[in-house]
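Provenance and format

Records in this collection were gathered into a single text stream. Each protein contributes a sequence line and a token line. The two records reproduced below are adjacent in the stream.
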Amino acid sequence: MTHASLPDHWQELIAGYALGDLSPDEAEEVRRLLEANPALHQEVTQLQETLALLPYDLADREPPLALRSNILTAAQTETSTIPAQTPQRTTHGIHPRWWSVGGAIAAVLIGALAIDNYQLRRQVTESEEIVALLQQPSTQLYTLQGTGAAIEASGSLVVNSDHDQVVILVKNLPELPQSQAYRLWAMPQEGATPVYCGQFNTTAEATTTTTWTPPEEECTAIAHQVLLTAESASDPPIPAGELVMQGVL
């Protein structure tokens, strides 16, 4: 589709429309654009499907070991600064030993909450970075669909040529053994030799959101088609494994 008749900021508008965070005037502008350019409906649908994958893919990630240690140390320090209270005699006869046990439990809980907060911030940051990519003119969005044994798999591939970056979001794609990997291939034109663009694996939940810089310039150019195959992780970058997903712009 040609975008010559669209305003310069149309990508930002439809991304905001897909997110549902436009002002009433902006939303009305998008509705007029959709009415005048029916082909935009498909792009909005692709964006909505891609954004819907974010909750699936942003699995919990532990903070780096050094940061995790600092978080837990800070949590323990915080509990140690709580003024000590002399337990009063009650009819229940609470033993003083339980006060120290309670403090230890509090330290663990505070540490766990701090780590959860770190993970949440990390997830929000990743989501914001992907949304920012989707709003840029140099971004291409491919819709991925499973094939063969992975027919239930679906996802999106976000490619940004200005930042030399690709992001893949998939769900219902089974995790491979450590000796294997999913490999991404770009076909610059029909019948061309596939270009190797990197490899990844999914999680035990059969999802992933993975970002990387591809090894070849052709990977961030507009491709006729993109393919995902299941390969041995140590094999040369030649497509020889089973085709599991494919997609087009």
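Adjacent record:
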Amino acid sequence: MSWRFVSCAALFVTCLLTANTIAAKLIVVGGVVLTAGIVIFPISYVVGDVLTEVWGYGAARRVIWLGFACNAVMVAAIWLGGELPPAPFWKGDAAYAEILGHTPRIVAASFVAYLVGEFANSFVLAKLKIATRGRWLWLRTIGSTVVGQALDSGVFVTLAFAGTVPPGVLARIVGGQWVFKVLYEAAATPLTYAAVAWLKASEGVDAYDHDTDFNPVRL
């Protein structure tokens, strides 16, 4: 396991945890309400593309599960911190709960959406690489993101807010997030090309998943 692979895995997990932490803040971009996590979460898809493109689906699968485990540890630690009694002189307990506290429904929705979206992204990219014989990287990365981010946004918003927000509003939220994330991926295409070229040359590897078992739960 090279330091380059470890660095990509660390960046992936960092983007995931940071996005989930800052998602408590709502922002407006072009009239669309988004969470602040949108500024960094799409980078996890860029890194996921790089992992799949260079090392293959199996390597990306391990990193996806690593991110899931780290996120679970973070959520558990935040919950435990909120349950511990605050110091008598500390006035920030309510703010802690408001910013870092998440309802079980939101947490469950984010976990399910993350796994569905990330595995779909990696699967589609790996299959497209075989179908295109390694050509048109831009088409493969953007195409996989179109699928992965649509599932991520759709699953999360539906599971988290269905029944509490009108269907039309849900659709607009999903659509806004999906479009922004895909545009983010497209804008990052030159960086993706540079990273993939450097890593393939440095690592001496260019994985094709011809005989890969795509079972997401297999490590």
